[in-house]
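Hi R.,

Here's the chain you asked about this morning:
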Amino acid sequence: MWYTPVSGIYKSVWLENVNEQYIERIEITPDLKGIDLKVFGNINSYKVEIEGKVYESFSESIRIDIENPKIWNCEHPYLYTMKIISDYDEVESYFALRTIQIKEIDGIQRVCLNDEPVFLHGVLDQGYYCDGLFTPAHECCYDEDILNMKELGFNMIRKHIKVEPDYFYYACDKHGMLVMQDMVNNGSYSFIRDTVIPTYISKKHDDTKADINSKHSQFFIEHTKQTILDLYNFPSIISFCIFNEGWGQFDSQRMYELLKERDDTRFIDSTSGWFRRKKSDVDSRHIYFTPWSTLKPSD
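And here is the predicted structure, written out as tokens:
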């Protein structure tokens, strides 16, 4: 179960010949009635085609309300097809209509999918494969894994300290599997600091003493920003986890604010396991030795 050293490229890489005026990227923010769409690139105007209906735009941003909207959920993961066309470029994509929020229901804070409480019944998915370690033998293996998990009654995957190829997240979108996405661990692991002390002694830790300007911290910040940018449009992703069990943890409250600034449409687990501070959307605990009957809610 331990983490095997790897090197090399494991995600898709391609070269694409583009015109000087091309669509660089898009940003899709859904709700239950439509989407807010931003199109980035050196283009003057564009039109959006959604399942045969065309919407014109002459600015970077456009609001599109969908007639008779079909809502995405785990049982009915409906995906709308979309095409964006400019004078010299054309891209195809998709989106789903869904919201994820933490709301008070009957006096209790609940995770709500599309305004309805959802019980997150998930697995920890480290993404290891016997064929290629970080990659399976074929893309269809992602589909098989996800469908097997759904058949077993799970509705969520926590993608653990690894960012998968885009097809994995598309498969989750297509099959209706919710995803909690970890950031890749930052810093080294210490058995005493990261396991013995929080398990047997104390889970309190002032992470503001860590050097936020260190090479490791700055790389983690930039990688986190890029991860959010790359994964923003996948509707199956409902949450981001910043630090796992103290590995490389630094100034988690400031990192929480950074992620919320970049993406406030998902809930944030700042410190999964332990070393929790005030700013986090969830109380996330890893219980290895304590009987569940002794657990009490956090203050």
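One quick note: The CA atoms of residues 121 and 154 lie 5 Å apart.

Cheers,
M.
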